[in-house]
Amino acid sequence: MTQTHPLENLYSEELYNLPPKVLIVVSKPWSEIQEDEKILLGKILSAVKLSLPSVQIINRAEFGFDDFNAYGPVCIIAFGATLINSTKMYERIMVDRTAIVVADALRQLDDLRKRNLWLTLKEVFHS
To answer: Is the pTM for the entire model greater than 0.90?
Structure first.
């Protein structure tokens, strides 16, 4: 039997380097989101080099930053959910080190709103 070095089966540090957490807040339960809305969300996320499995999706009609502080997110993107004490939409809102972007519900995103969302997400993810 061949002896192996005790550290031979350890993995490199890159394996343990977890990506920053991005939270997606939707205003209705995931089970009520139509397939075309899920596809749109997937396209929006892929535009900023994310995917549905790489984000955490939470259902809330309204939220405050403190609601998600324990998750330690670097970014919160809300679709149809209202940020308490804020009326800003399609703008980057910074709370501590977390960027928050509030947009209309996925179903309501027309071309103009998609463009505004893209401009804001570009600012958040490429700055």
So the answer is: no
